[in-house]
Specification:
alpha+beta, elongated, 236 residues, 3 domains, single chain, three-stranded mixed β-sheet
Length: 236
Amino acid sequence: MGALGRSQGKRFELHAPTAGFGAHHGTKITSCQARDAKRKGKVERPFRQLQETFLPEVEADGAPVDLADLHGRSQVWLAERVHAASYGGRTRLPQSVAEGKVRHRLRGPRRVHNALPFVAIDANRYSVSPEALGNMVEIRRPVDSDSVEIRLAGRLIATHRLVAGRRSDVWDPAHKLAAEALALGWDPNAPDLRVVENQPEPAGVERLELGGDYDVASPDLDGRYTVTIDDGEVSV
């Protein structure tokens, strides 16, 4: 806002270049007060779909080489995901591409927890391999499917069936085993892992066989302790 004008309390005075720009294009430039959701939301909401769907797809498919490439992708996205979408209730279902490429109802980046191998999706958590801890992954939910795919650097690392409700932890048994092993401080996939019971004993170790009766000499208490009696008090 500071580039467009100057604020004086609730008044906002446009800079001369800003006013000239509006006059040249026949546009009236007005300012909104802070926390004015009814007016500011009209500006922000139309771009929310771009931010939550189109931009993550651009990031997942690779950065565009130039502006023309970005424009071409946007035209394809508009044709397939917006103009050709079917509206049923509150759910927007995109159509499949003519070539048969599967489109995804849910697609976007997620950050894996730094300590727990989980990705949060719709108020529930789904497990991934501990190798993904702290990394950005991509989630994909194909249309007409109740499963979700999780990819790390384009590689599929987990597939889960979505569950109803909230605050549920969904584990893949292999992920849980790897996470428990990591928590205990060892790597189950390490090539040099050895079982302790199978290790040979070091040379020179004598094993003490317990059990049975043993003759133990009585301790010499007189030689170990000195007893002094002074005025009826005994000190050792």
